[in-house]
Amino acid sequence: MTGPGGDGPGDDGEGHEEVRGAAPRIPGPRTAADDLTPPRTGPTRPDGRSTPPGPEPGPPPGTEPSTEPGRSTPPAEPASPGADPAPGGRPVPRVPGAPPDPVPPGGGPAHGPGAPMNPTGPADPTEHANPSTSSTPGASRGELPEPSHGVLKSLLGAWALAACSPEEATAVEAHLGDCAPCADEALRLRDAVALLHTERDLDLDPLLRSRVLESCLGRRPARVPVPEWAAPYDAETARLDALLRDIGESEWHAPVRLRWFDGVGGASRRTTVAGVMGHLLTVDGVVAHALGLDDPLGPDAPRVPTGRTERFWRSARHPTTREVHGPWRDQSHTLIRTVSFAGRGVSDLSVSYGDFSLPLRDSLLDRAFECWIHAEDIADAVDYPYDPPRGAHLNRMIDLAARLLPAALAERRRAGLAAPAQHLVMAGAPGRSLHLEIEGAGGGDWFIALDSPAALASPEQAVAQVALDGVEFCRLVAGHITPEDAAAGQDGDREAIRDVLFAAASLSRM
């Protein structure tokens, strides 16, 4: 022990005391406040040295074991007045057999003989920042506390996108069974995720576009609406455009076989998907030329559709690729805009196809029909689902074919390919008729004059009846099925029925 204020045998020259016969004691780790704040001192003593405010709490009083076996050191005597305490408080000897000092949280140094000496620096100040952590139930077993309502609600978006961890997903799903507001929000988020498509394709409802347009136009009519007679062409070109956007580069070279009926039997021509689009581009150019627009083949191009297509295919230096898609779609957009701004009288404009002519309203309906038929050819070639047109548009196409049938039947009769007329009548007078009954979407009833195109067909003069599905009848008109293969319900004059079915197939062309 040292005397008051002097450098005795137990003083190291720096104001530290030493208990004789005891193991050297290492001060405990300081907290962050000790590192940053100067130590508090008491009043200044007469010798110029400050007095500490009081001893720091230390271990229970007792005796510490001696370094020699079988020998212990008696309890340390209290410091005499004016003595300097050691840093961190006066070291107190241990009592033999007393429990060891508790180890500080985080693995601080233990006190006593044989304890590791590690005076490397202060311990991590965060070790004592949250004393409640060690007392949390289940913390020793690695269990996490249950997430709060706010945390679970913030995870609903990630859960809807299937981006949660398995533990988070389990917690969210358990919470949804107990919280109705969060369950409703999760359902709305899941519905929103289902709408995140990068590109609309034909796997969606084929009538979705029409319904959206009808809803929009019902709320705010277009300043310049598309004429009703041009709506089928607008719809079919849009559907084909969606199909073309959804196929890959290599599929543009997929083989396609164009089929039609040449008056006697079936005919076909082999090309590619890009070749079909070139065919549609050149034949649509006939309508563009009639409206005063640029013809894709130039002003001196032939008017006959087959000749125009052959010329386009021959003039291509390289095999036609998807580069034909852009010009075709631009041309179809231009046609729709032109007829929309042209006014009502434009519907009667004559469009020449070389050996026959059609008014513009029927010409665009014919182009819509061919667009659908060739879109099915492309879809079959690339193994893509494709639905028929909507019922109202299909009805217009069937009506056009039914109106063209008397003239086609008369032409076949002049070529010796049909039975002669039996009862010629004056123009406009009732004559023999065939009842054409079309079933399914776009269906209806039509009466076809048999003996003269100028005769008036009527139910009272019907001598035969044919029943066909609407889509099957259109494929017969397109030459995709032969008259013999058409599954038709027949009743009445068999010869008249045969002549009408063959006349319907002869309306087709490449």
Work out the strand percent: 5-15%
Structural class: alpha+beta
Q: Rg from C-alpha positions?
A: 49 Å
What's the overall average pLDDT, rounded? Answer: 78
Proportion of residues in helical segments: 25-40%
Largest sheet: 4 strands, mixed
Low-confidence stretches: 1-24, 30-39, 62-90, 103-142
Number of strands: 8
**How do the SSEs run, as a string of H and E?**
HHHHHHHEEHHHEEHHEEEHEH
Describe the structure.
- A 4-stranded mixed beta sheet has the order 6-5-7-8. It has a two-stranded antiparallel ribbon with strand order 1-2. Strands 3-4 form a two-stranded antiparallel ribbon.
- The protein has helices spanning 32-36, 149-154, 156-160, 166-176, 180-194, 208-219, 231-245, 273-290, 305-315, 325-342, 360-381, 391-414, 470-477, 494-505; strands spanning 255-261, 266-272, 350-352, 357-359, 430-439, 444-449, 456-469, 489-492.
- Helix 7 (231-245) packs antiparallel against helix 10.
- It is built from 14 helices and 8 strands.
- It has 510 residues and is an alpha+beta fold.
- The model is unreliable at 1-24, 30-39, 62-90 and 103-142 (pLDDT under 50).
- The longest helix is centred in the C-terminal third of the chain and has 24 residues, at 391-414.
- The protein is elongated.
- 36% of the residues lie in helices and 11% in strands.
